[in-house]
Amino acid sequence: MSSPNLVFVMSDDHAAHAISAYGSVVNRTPHIDRIAEEGVRLDKVYCTNSICTPSRASILTGTYSHINGACSIYSELDYRVPTYAQILQAKGYQTAIFGKWHLGVTEQANPRGFDAWRIFPGQGAYVDPVMYGPEGEEVVEGYASNIVTDLSLEWLDARDDDRPFCLMVHHKAPHRPWVPDEKHRDLYPVGSIPEPPTMWDDHESRSEVIRNVGMTVGDHLTENDVKEPLPEELAGPDKFRERASWKYQRYMRDYLQTVQGVDDNVGRLLDYLEEKGLADDTVVVYTSDQGFFLGDHGWFDKRLMFQESIGMPLLIRWPGELAAGTRCEAMITNVDFAATFLDMCGVDPDEELPDNQGRSFLPLLKGEEVDDWPQSMYYRYWEHDDPEHHAPAHYGVRTHEYLYIVYYNDGLGSPGSSERIMPTEYELYDLVKDPAELHNVVDDPAYAEVRAQMEAELARLQDKYRDEPYRGPDTPRLDWSR
Predict the structure, then answer these.
(1) Is residue 145 domain-resident?
(2) Are residues 166 and 289 in the same domain?
(3) pLDDT in tens, 25-50
């Protein structure tokens, strides 16, 4: 067959459990659901560094953060590392990206490999956003999710009909501060949204550094987040539960309303492809750059190596190639996306991506058995103790049965001192007996053998991906150059 078109829709912080195709109990997403109904729903997809810039860099390059240089939101994608967009452009694809980029704003960090691009600076604004492209910047009137789709459809109308295209439609929604489109302001009213089963997790068995993160719904969502002042009677230390419930309803109302704007615009794209006779020749992908805590464990935001944070929705439709209404349970990461997209487009990723650390999961999408598919994934979050969220740097390994995390904390103390400011902490969760990840069993003697196995697997994956364990702030990193 001829090379298919690729439409890649990515939202920001859209948790899978806020998509009805994944069983959401808090909202409905009928247009995103269409992709699942007509294609494949992937159920175990994970980001390898749960924050915007790093995840986007890994998706584009097929590499981990320490390879592509984008370890945090304060870093930029290393422009020397090739992206799948550059490769497809070199192979004759028409390429474009509209919406969120968030991989740096210097000239070297502007989108490469695209015939057309207009992006938000940084996170961008929800209403009347500034956007910039090759010809400069301007304020674009309207609502961000609608604008991104408008620009995408305009580009599709103007493209060369004789060449395949790769279009990236990258929404800023539903990223904080969750400003909805006016037409959705009556949806999901306060008091109507069920609280998650783990909302009142007491964190008793967790590491000290995790008990102290600044991500609780009750105490760390601000007045700017919930759009109204906290009632005085909810301000006391003994009112935490009441305060958390009050904030949760307002946070989730706005979050879900912004999700609705994304869903509406996914519908516009799908309808356009149908109307123009493009649907059968176009791969449509929907994902988010990471997951998000929706009151789960009492938190909002992401960063941590728990399911709600690192789990990514991924829905893919390719008529005639992928069976409709199917599911994939294989363990996949965002590092695998680039190889898969190239494989779909008839390009060998191993030949074209010299730093590729991922693997095409196209055979899995087609229902084929792949005996040597990975049964574990490696994760590393690099931003230690950022001033707002106080999330710790950590790394770990996840299998189908267990989750093992190492919080290496502050490492060594003052230069020349062997005294640690805060000791390294560890967590281990039995995902079969404890799928909600509530009980840390790392010190349980019954799990001693499992812990040893997970430690060994962590070491194996760090070696495989050319990363290394944390060895203190004054210790030079190993030389991984080829």
Answers:
(1) yes
(2) yes
(3) 999 999 999 999 999 999 999 999 99
Q: Is residue 322 part of a domain?
A: yes
CA distance 378 to 189: 39
Amino acid 161 reads D
User: Three-state DSSP class for 165?
Assistant: strand
pLDDT at 480: 44
Do residues 169 and 10 touch, judged by C-beta distance below 8 A?
yes
Average pLDDT over residues 139-143: 98
| CA proximity to 92, closest of 175, 190, 165 | 165
Max Cα–Cα distance, the chain, nearest Å? 69
Q: Is the full-model pTM beyond 0.85?
A: yes
Contact 182, 22 (CB under 8 A): no
Kindly state whether residues 56 and 145 are assigned to the same domain. yes
**Closest alpha carbon to 87 in 60, 108, 122:** 60
pLDDT tens digits, 375-395: 999 999 998 878 899 999 999
Q: For residue 321, what is the domain's CATH number?
A: 3.40.720.10
CB atoms within 10 A of CB 105: 13
Tell me the residue range of the domain where 300 lies: 5-180+250-371
For residue 366, the tally of other CB atoms under 10 A from its CB is 14
Return the amino acid letter for 219. D
Contact yes or no for 103/77 (Cβ under 8 A): yes
Question: Is 162 found in the same domain as 109?
Answer: yes
Instruction: Tell which residue, 383, 430, 437, 426, has the closest CA to residue 49.
Output: 383
Beta bridge mates, 97: 117, 168
Is residue 473 scored above 70 in pLDDT? no
For 17, residues 6+ apart whose C-beta sits below 8 A from its C-beta are 23, 24, 26, 294, 308
Phi, psi of 268 (to 5 degrees): -60, -45
Q: Please tell me whether residues 363 and 381 are part of one structural domain.
A: no
Pairwise CA distance, residues 153 & 7, whole Å? 11
384 and 260 within one domain: no
Residues 346 and 307 in one domain: yes
Alpha-carbon span 362 to 343, nearest angstrom:
7
- Tell me, yes or no, whether 88 lies in a domain: yes
Does 22 map to a domain?
yes
Q: Are residues 417 and 357 in the same domain?
A: no
3-state secondary structure of 131: strand
Please report where in the chains the tokens 């969750």 appear, as a residue. 178
Assess contact for 322 and 343: CB atoms under 8 A.
no
The total number of structural domains in the chain stands at 2
Q: Do 312 and 169 share a structural domain? A: yes
